[in-house]
Amino acid sequence: MTVNEICKWLESSDFKEGDRLPSVRSVSEQLSASTCTVFRAYRKLIDQKKIYGEQGNGYFWGREKLAPPEPHVHEHVVERLERLLQEDWKSGKFATDSALPSIKELCTQYATSVGSMRRTLEKLQAAGILSRRGRGRFYFRTVQAPRAKEILLVMRANPTGDFYCLGDRELEFMQKVYADAEKRNLRVRVLGYNEAAGKFLDSAGKAIAPETFRDAFGAILSTMLIFKPGRLFMQFAHTRFPISVWWEHPLSEIPRALKKEPRYAFFNLAFGEFPGRAVGRFLREKGCSNVAYISPYHLSSWSVDRLNGLKKSGLHVFEAVDAENASPYDFRDKTREEFEQIVLRLVENIPQGVDAWVVVNDEVGCALHRTFMRGELARPPYVVSFDNTVDSYRIRMDSFGFNVDALAEQSVFHIVSPGVTLYARDDFRELSGRVVEK
Prior knowledge:
Layout: H1 3-11, H2 24-31, H3 35-47, E1 51-54, E2 58-61, H4 77-91, H5 103-110, H6 114-126, E3 130-132, E4 138-140, E5 150-156, H7 168-183, E6 187-194, E7 199-201, E8 207-208, E9 216-222, H8 229-234, E10 243-247, H9 256-259, E11 264-268, H10 274-285, E12 290-295, H11 301-312, E13 316-321, H12 336-347, E14 356-359, H13 362-373, E15 383-386, H14 390-394, E16 398-402, H15 404-416, E17 429-430, E18 433-436
Parallel strand pairs: 5-6, 5-9, 9-10, 10-11, 11-17, 12-13, 12-14, 14-15, 15-16
Antiparallel strand pairs: 1-2, 3-4, 6-7, 7-8, 16-18
C-alpha cells in the first residue's frame, strides 16, 4: 500500500479525538505494508495536524493538547538527594557490586549536610534498596539465588548459530556482561536466536528447547535487529526467573504487560530524546547556539528523537534531513561514493553562521570527513556525532558514547537483585551517556 492509501485507511477508521492509534508495526502487519511506509504515513498525518505523538506512549488521533504549565513545587532536600542519586545511578557512576562512597564524600558531592544525606540513605534502606553492615558504608542490596550460578545471554544469530555483523556496541556489551558476571562468580551461557526460524541455537547450529535451561536463574535478551521481539519473549513465557532486556526499538513499542511485570527490566540505550539533549547541553557549554542536524535516516524514530532532543536543549537547529530511509541498512546496496553524494546533497543548503554540525551517527560523520579531506567540501567549524565507534577515534571526531558499561552491569544486577533499583516503578531504564572528546 502507498502512504496516501494508509492515510485514507486511518482517516476512515472512525477514530475519536484522543484515541490511541495502533502501532506502526501492527498496521504494517495488518495491511501488508512496510514499516517505513506506515511510518511515513504517520508523519504525513502529524504534519497535517490530524494525529500527534507522545514520547513513550505512541500516536493519538486529533490535535495535541498543550498541558498547562506545572506549578512550581518546592523540592524537599531528601527528594532532591533521591533525584540526584537516581541520575547518577542512570549514568553508571555507582558500581552495583561495591559500597557507595562514604557519607562524608557523598555530602561533598551533593553539597548537603550529613544529617540530610543520612536520612536519604536510611529511607532507601527502609525501602529495601540499600543495605548496611554495622556502621559501615551503604551498598545496594543483593538477593542472589542460593544454588543456580548460570545466566543466559541471548543475541541474534544466523541459521548456523553464528553471531553476525556484531557492531562495536554489541561486542562490547557481550564482553562487559561476561566481566560483570565473573565478578559475581556467575557463568554466562550465550545462545543465538535465529528470528526467521524462531529457534535458539548453540554454537554448532543445533536447536535448543527453552525447557533445557534448567540451570539458569535469569536471562539477558538483546533485541538489536530483532524485528519482532514479541516472538522472542514468548519463548520465556513459562519461565519464572528475572529477565533483563536491551531494548533497541521505539519506547512506545515496549509491551505494556511485560513492562509492568516485576521480573522484566527494559533498558533503553539509544532510543528517546536523551542523546540529543546531552549533545545539546554539551554544545551550549561550548558556546554554540546555532547548529545544523544532518541525517539521511530521518524516517527512523531514533533520528527524529535525537533532533527533538537537540531542540529541547535550547539550540536553534537547521534541519538537513532526508525522510526516505530509516537506517544504514537501507543503503547497503549503495557504494561508498553514492552514499557520500547523498550526504553532500543534504549539507549543500546549510546556511552560513552555524556554530556546529551534528551528524546522526559516525558513519555519516566519516563520509563527511572523506569529502573534507578531498577538498570537495569546506570544513565546518565543528562536527559532533553519535555512537563513538572505532572510526570516530581514527578520524578524531567527538562523538556521543552510549553507556554500554552501565547497560551490562545493571542488566546483570537486575538478575541477581530483581526489584532493587533507584528507577521509578514501571519506568523504562534510560541509561545516559556522554560526548567523548578526541
